[in-house]
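TODO from last week: model Cation transporter.
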Amino acid sequence: MSAKSDLMKSTFRIEKMDCPSEENIIRMKLDGFPQIKKLEFDIPERTLHVYHEGKVDQIEARIAELNFNSSLQATQPTEGIFDAEDAGLQRKILWTVLIINFGFFAVEIIAGILAASMGLIGDSLDNLADAIVYGLSLLAVGKAVTHKKQVAKLSGYFQLLLAAIGFAEVVRRFLGFAEMPVFEVMIIVSAFTLVGNSISLYLINKAKSQEAHMQASAIFTSNDIIVNVGVMLAGVLVQVTATRYPDLVIGGILFLVVARGAFRILKLAK
């Protein structure tokens, strides 16, 4: 697509954009702006380039509504040629990460229930929350903005409900109404997901791609690896201390992360 004389490039700094979830939320938030011709995300640098026609005011206001600590850095005319984004490729990527996250959710939720581990359950719901964001992005393709907001609202409240139930269970167990978690299952399942995420990160880095979605996936997978190590460490501490508290602490932290994601999704429904 050739750039027109009135084509502008606006650069935004978005401090709280640190994983693909935020990227997809921003894409959905900007859906329905015909003047936007292309979005370029640089998640490691927390930067978004918007190629658009006309003024940037409405675009800036829409991004600001997300409260991602965004700021407009520059707006200038741009020249040259750039290709329109490949919707088919985006769908393929979204389906891939959705399946991966939902697969990890299924494994960890079953293991977490069987092992009475709030850490594993919390990690599973974190993966489910990510899958919800990707699912919302897929549903938004070709749909009206009103439909998108309705789906986002329902998904956000569902995710918030899960986080509230999980956190309430953590409090109940802190009061002593629970069995000891099976630390062996915590360690083994977390190690399994750690290996899977490490392989994914290796393949992503091996590709040496400069594409935004690949860079975002690398950051996202790195965060998942940190969580996996945290749950494994909690399992070890459960064994060493012979108490359920390390598992409850990591579980409580993860449920707060899930709740934070739910509030971000609900912002789309405004």
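Done. The radius of gyration is 20 Å.
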